[in-house]
Specification:
Length: about 500
């Protein structure tokens, strides 16, 4: 029975990993992680229910059907991520493929436990059988929920994870041909089928890096020169001639050809407007590009960079190509890097800062939306020294107009005097920022030498908004409503309907 119990744990672990892999892939490709996880998990659980219901129609050859289900779920579930990446690049009907695969895998996983219970009937009392199988099933689910974010995705990536878990399912099927050999009339055939499936999945696992590269090359127009999967995101760097582009979960973060416009506009109006910017805090901005601009000020004595992902800050501190982009800013002796959730860190620290630069990705999901909430800005206000200033990247006032003004109004609702402004960045289009402080921010005093875009003479024009970007009525973004994420999703969906 011990071999059977191990099989139950493997089956349960694999079943949950397939669910998590599909949800993570959908989140990476489509954005809005809350929506993707919710809909994928809901569809998957429903499909499992369908599979459990269909098990009642398996009346003969239960052992053979169980082995066939294990082989099938291993093959379909194992190749799911690869198929999703290819489908996203090749077909406009990605969601049909996504939920089709989720449905098939869910039905197959739903068949497993009912068939296994029937196979074990008679070996144990029914109450003991159900208690042991279901308790092991839940234990396997816990194991999967821990392994997936802590080991599998960071170390193996999504494609190799699903292929290796598929191998585990097929191995259970092959193992079962010996465990239930007395109930099998075609054990040799099933073993051959299982071995062929193992070869198929094993070959895919060995070639996972090539498969990942091939599939991502169809998602990105330019050559991929670096790709990493961290515990938090997929990091991809592309290059075309002298243009380096960073993508996080498929979203463009910067182009090296024009990022100076964005980062000069983000940093200098705040730092140059402060009388004595000695202590500066950067939230987000793990690429070090905002820090590069900050350390141009001799008056700055310390820079604290708080970024969630240690892989980001490690890459931009040690990779020669990336160091060339940020000028080695993260190695400056004045810079301290803290890898932590900015929301949690702000609530715990008692440090005060003269200037805070907020450089988070756009609020395309609820995890990011909390970093644009009134609660977050209240924490931020509490960490400002007297005369302190804040600069916030605030998405596009042209393409996401309500989102932009929602950020402005949310800052004001937190008790900050906010002055919105905008610049044109070719890679992004018209882009918006907000300069805020405990008191109305003053005009910048003087910028450091060597800036490529900003001048003190041209700065006042940045704070003027034409009618098509002017303020519109919006709600404040609170933790309990996350209205900003809804604004953002609706506005960008209107521009890019395929997202």
């Amino acid at each position: 029975m011990s071999a059977i119990y191990v099989s139950v744990v493997v089956v349960a672990t694999a079943g949950l990993v397939y669910e998590l892999v599909a949800a993570a892939a959908a989140s990476y490709l489509l954005g809005d992680s809350i929506t993707q996880f919710s809909t994928v998990i809901g569809a998957y659980l429903f499909a499992m229910g369908v599979g459990s219901f269909l098990s009642r129609y398996v009346r003969r050859g239960v052992a053979a059907r169980f082995v066939e289900v294990e082989i099938a779920v291993g093959l379909v579930g194992g190749w799911t991520t690869t198929v999703l990446f290819v489908a996203f690049a090749q077909t406009p009907h990605f969601r049909v493929v996504l939920y089709g695969l989720v449905g098939v895998v869910g039905v197959l996983v739903g068949l497993e436990i009912p068939l296994l219970l029937r196979l074990l009937r008679g070996r144990l009392a029914f109450s003991e059988l159900v208690a042991q199988v279901l308790s092991l099933d839940y234990a396997g689910a816990l194991l999967a929920s821990l392994l997936f974010p802590l080991l599998l995705v960071p170390r193996l990536g999504l494609i190799r994870t699903s292929l290796l878990v598929g191998l585990a399912n097929v191995a259970v099927g092959l193992w079962s041909t010996w465990i239930f050999r007395r109930e099998l009339a075609t054990a040799g055939y099933l073993r051959g089928l299982a071995v062929a499936a193992l070869v198929c999945l094993g070959g895919g696992a060995l070639a996972a890096e090539r498969i990942t590269t091939w599939s991502e090359e169809r998602l990105y127009a330019d050559e991929i020169i670096l790709a990493r999967t961290s515990a938090y995101q997929r990091i991809v760097l592309t290059r075309w001639t002298d243009d380096l582009r960073l993508f996080l979960n498929g979203h463009l973060q910067f182009s090296s050809r024009d990022e100076y416009r964005y980062h000069e506009a983000l940093v200098h109006p705040a730092v140059a407007a402060h009388a004595a910017p000695r202590r500066v805090l950067v939230l987000g901005g793990g690429d070090g590009l905002a820090v590069r601009e900050i350390v141009k000020y001799p008056a700055v004595q310390s820079v604290t960079l708080v970024d969630l992902d240690p892989e980001m800050t490690r890459l931009f501190s040690h990779n020669p190509v990336l160091i060339a982009v940020n000028g080695g800013a993260l190695r400056d002796p004045r810079v301290r890097v803290v890898n932590a959730d900015a929301f949690v860190w702000l609530g715990q620290t008692r440090e005060a800062f003269d200037v805070v630069i907020v450089d988070f990705p756009d609020p395309h999901n609820f995890s990011l939306g909390k970093l644009y909430s009134r609660s977050f800005y209240r924490l931020l206000r509490a960490r400002l020294a007297p005369g302190g200033l804040v600069s916030v990247q605030a998405t596009s006032p042209m393409f996401a107009r309500r989102s932009f003004w929602c950020i402005v109004e949310t800052l004001r609702s937190a008790g900050l005097a906010a002055r919105p402004y905008h610049v044109y960045v070719p890679s992004f289009g018209e882009w918006g920022f907000v300069l805020a402080g405990l008191e109305p921010p003053a005009a910048p005093r003087a910028y450091p030498d060597g800036l490529r875009f900003l001048t003190t003479e041209a700065t006042p024009a940045l704070f003027v908004f034409p009618p098509d970007m002017a303020a519109v009525p919006v709600e404040v973004n609170r933790l309990d409503n996350q209205i900003l994420v809804q604004y953002y999703g609706a506005e960008w969906q209107r521009i890019f309907p395929s997202l």
